[in-house]
Amino acid sequence: MRQIHVLNGPNLNLLGRREPSIYGAATLADIESELSALAKKAGVALTFSQTNLEGELVAQIQNAGLAGADVILNAGAYTHTSVAIRDAIKGSGARVIEVHISNVHAREEFRHHSYISAVAAGIIVGFGIAGYKLAFQALLDLNPGA
Ligand code: CA2
């Protein structure tokens, strides 16, 4: 069965609880239940996780890539700082769709650069939490019938 791992980085556990003007009112649990419903319909095995630790995110990316799972990744602020996460994507061969809830290009300059984008299969930025669903659909469309 096709596997998709949805990996979330630091502070995304706060979604829905702070800064709703930037990130909206939905929680990470809301996103997980929407995606789980889509995965069930599509016959995809979905796992969903969040960590505040860079090394844990590296390990999760490696596990996904080495297991042949696709990844929907919102690496949070590590997007803008982490060579280790980029190396994990490249090194494990994980197919990654990079997602950001907010339009990082309309925000502070330090959010304009991503270490992940160059090694991602695609990037979805600024569509709010719908970005996760768009990424899921994009992965299905990349390998129809898989
Ligand atoms: O827009 C995104 O999805 C981000 O990846 C979110 C990160 C930010 O550092 C990136 O530049 C863009 C921040 C995640 C923190 O989320 C919060 C949610 C609610 C309240 C506080 C933080």
What's the shape? globular
The set of bound ligands, ions and cofactors reads: ligand CA2
Mean pLDDT: 96
Helical content, roughly? 25-40%
CATH homologous superfamily annotation: Dehydroquinase, class II
Number of helices: 5
Throw out a few tags for this protein.
single chain; five-stranded parallel beta sheet; 146 residues; Rossmann fold; globular; alpha/beta
What does this structure look like?
With 146 residues, the chain is an alpha/beta fold. The chain has a single domain (3-142), classed as Dehydroquinase, class II (Rossmann fold). The protein has five helices and five strands; from the N terminus they run βααβαβαββα. It has helices at residues 20-23, 28-42, 54-66, 83-92, 130-142, and strands spanning 3-8, 45-50, 70-74, 95-100, 122-125. It has a five-stranded parallel beta sheet, sandwiched between helices. Residues 11-12, 14-15, 18-19, 23, 74, 76-77, 79, 100-102, 104, 111 line the site of ligand CA2.
